[in-house]
User: What shape does this take?
Amino acid sequence: MKVLVFSAKPYDRQFLSAASEAQGGVEFHYLEVPLRADTRHLVSGYDAVCAFVNDCIDALVLQALAEAGIRLIAMRCAGYNNIDLKEAARLGITIMRVPAYSPHAVAEHAVALMLALNRKIHRAYNRVREGNFLLNGLLGFDMYQRTVGIVGTGRIGEALSRIMLGFGCRVIAHDVYQNPACLEMGVEYVDLDTLLAQSDIISLHCPLTPETRYLVNAQSVTKMKRGVMIINTGRGALIDTQAVIDALKSGQIGYLGLDVYEQEDGLFFEDLSCEVIQDDMFERLMTFHNVIITGHQGFFTHEALENIAHTTVGNIRCYFGGTPQCENVVRLPS
Ligand code: NAI
Assistant: This one.
């Protein structure tokens, strides 16, 4: 099967090629450009495409794919909020994904952001390199016995709960379903307002849906503890960035750790170090000493990339092997 891989970075080639060699049956061809309206015509002659989080798979792109005879999009990620699922279903295009590859990778990255913000590692690193060993301004707090609020206790939220309980934190959570493993380990489920009011640290691990879009907004930040820490490794639009900037300016939000950003498409995964970044909201965020942003690297561990590649090849083989109804097919929400 010939599969065209969009948004391909060197590490994608490395891990996907190794997986296809090990499992056989899939021939990957790689393109650095993303899949979107102006690259949609590149798909002819392929049996399937493989896409990633910031590819723009809207109705126009899907129609071009269908015309070229493509019936499978193999996403090499968990999320699929960048796909027009209704249009894909109408056109008979199957979407497959990698629902779980390493929840630990993302959970551990959330903890890295928490600790760096709390103990001001980013500032200490620069100071020490310049021979400044003053501690003024670097005061942190014990995580022990603090309350951590986790929104979304699926695979990643569960892994994070386990880590935070290990720190001796009280872990409260909000989800539309209660995860039995979380209940068993001592996580307390509360409604969203209670979570906002009681948490010292709030970490977002739910998918981006119409219900969760702008879950952190001008109104919800007023319900939080003054000086709260917010961590978002979920999806950028879970947060209304302008509202968060206002709350950082007033001190209502005391710390912000982001691995995702609502306008990350066109910024993240690119080297823009010789260009002037035009996104003023992003640049304003970068001026705060109590904000740390990483460029969507939560998933980026050796183990996760190996699992992603292995499952992606498995998904493609499963589809073309005549069993497309495998568990990794994305279904239209009812
Ligand atoms: P999951 O599907 O295992 O868990 C998501 C949880 O969110 C479920 O328990 C679900 O019931 C809950 N949820 C759904 N709607 C909700 C709502 N309105 N309020 C509260 N909870 C709600 O997903 P997983 O694997 O834990 O991933 C979570 C999210 O993390 C993904 O959707 C994706 O957006 C993001 N992600 C980020 C990565 C990164 O590199 N930064 C990598 C992988 C995932």
